[in-house]
Amino acid sequence: xxxxxxxxxxxxxxxxxxxxxxxxxxxxxxxxxxxxxxxxxxxxxxxxxxxxxxxxxxxxxxxxxxxxxxxxxxxxxxxxxxxxxxxxxxxxxxxxxxxxxxxxxxxxxxxxxxxxxxxxxxxxxxxxxxxxxxxxxxxxxxxxxxxxxxxxxxxxxxxxxxxxxxxxxxxxxxxxxxxxxxxxxxxxxxxxxxxxxxxxxxxxxxxxxxxxxxxxxxxxxxxxxxxxxxxxxxxxxxxxxxxxxxxxxxxxxxxxxxxxxxxxxxxxxxxxxxxxxxxxxxxxxxxxxxxxxxxxxxxxxxxxxxxxxxxxxxxxxxxxxxxxxxxxxxxxxxxxxxxxxxxxxxxxxxxxxxxxxxxxxxxxxxxxxxxxxxxxxxxxxxxxxxxxxxxxxxxxxxxxxxxxxxxxxxxxxxxxxxxxxxxxxxxxxxxxxxxxxxxxxxxxxxxxxxxxxxxxxxxxxxxxxxxxxxxxxxxxxxxxxxxxxxxxxxxxxxxxxxxxxxxxxxxxxxxxxxxxxxxxxxxxxxxxxxxxxxxxxxxxxxxxxxxxxxxxxxxxxxxxxxxxxxxxx
Length: 569
Known about the structure:
The protein folds into three domains: 41-197, Alpha-D-Glucose-1,6-Bisphosphate, subunit A, domain 3 (Alpha-D-Glucose-1,6-Bisphosphate, Chain A, domain 3), CATH 3.40.120; 219-440, Alpha-D-Glucose-1,6-Bisphosphate, Chain A, domain 3, CATH 3.40.120.10; 442-565, TATA-Binding Protein. It has helices at residues 2-9, 18-30, 32-39, 63-80, 98-111, 125-134, 169-178, 199-213, 238-244, 278-287, 318-336, 353-361, 372-381, 408-424, 429-440, 454-470, 548-565, and strands at 49-53, 87-92, 115-119, 139-143, 152-158, 194-197, 225-228, 250-252, 291-295, 302-307, 313-316, 342-347, 364-368, 386-392, 396-399, 442-451, 475-476, 479-486, 491-494, 500-502, 511-515, 520-525, 531-540. It is α/β, with parallel strands linked by helices. GO terms for molecular function: magnesium ion binding; phosphoglucomutase activity; phosphopentomutase activity.
């Protein structure tokens, strides 16, 4: 506690604002537990940026922690691009303080002689990614905490290719930041270097989104959509993209259309959780809509609900949406003719069905660690290859490469194209998905996410993952474990034969068990929240669509059995 108290007292100098000092003095006198949580560690600038609870302290998002990261990034840019006119672009989402924090970040960049393009109002993360290359910038920043609760905010860094920073830049930037003290931050702005931007980038981004996501689907006049932005940024882009894509029957949930960092109508602004889409689903049932679309606050994640075989609205998960979007894009590319250099991509914890589909179409399949920055890196690393599309289980998808991150804007249009065309063909989004199960195998996934907050929570997560590794699972649902993939050691071992293979993916705290029948259990800590996540994937054959409900129930039961076996139920 003495070290924590000493750290807190360093924030009582005249460098820090009077209100900051007053709050710290109050915590020292009255709330040692809260003081400890705020100062027991530094808010880490991870491999993609920062995300955490807002407030005063080294373990919080505030003008000083973001200022220090920006100062370090400025030093790095000035070192790497010495002699060039360095430019960055900054966007921010709907969260409380995002606009003022974005302005602070812009001022620090400008104080370091760096030209800044600052969006006038909130914008989507995919537009920021697009703007980096559109404006020929060296880097980009978006102030967002994605789908986290209202008390969070964050800071994501993009590089010259429009993708998030990856090795070696991430480690080099972190080293620059860690070498600084808070007093090294230059807060005095050079206003002549800050240029506010607006519609000119919007129009270019929206035009590209429509070009990438519109396939002239039939039946648009007869296709009804309910859209909710969940109080976030997508209200600035998706309605216009859908309109330009030819969709006129779009009902916007007005109660959730106004940007609001408190997210007053939902428990969590995360389209992965069914509650977030409940208001939109209810409206869809009332008006007989065909599809519900909802996005997270910065509009990189996309939630979809469609009518199931019983005519009821059902939310499809990220794996299901990814599979059908990829299938559609592959089919469209096949109609044009494959050139032989195409690839699709996903992550190591997403459905193996993507690989099965790639094999069926004869295109290359690439897999990465969790996080879209790795998919963006693939595009940069293999310029001779043609990225068709790809996604991850956490409700993210990217169409082509004009954006280099999850893009709910273009993906919304693509999903509507698929569903509208399917309906015109006498099918549906849901029925087309079931046909994929017949064609490529019926894969069913389940995610268990366990939250452990604070200092003790971080230790619990560490211990859970350690136990999972040191007490190996020998069988799952009656099938022997065949492969253990340890991404910390970069070794995949066949425990039945002793064979070992190198894993050609950057090291990460991920462990995956795969059984003889293809069942996969993956465990990893969340990179953005105090959570440990377990991913379960099962599969079987589906001979015909008529067997769907029966086989789905069998896989659901298998997943329940696995959860009980692993004490995750």
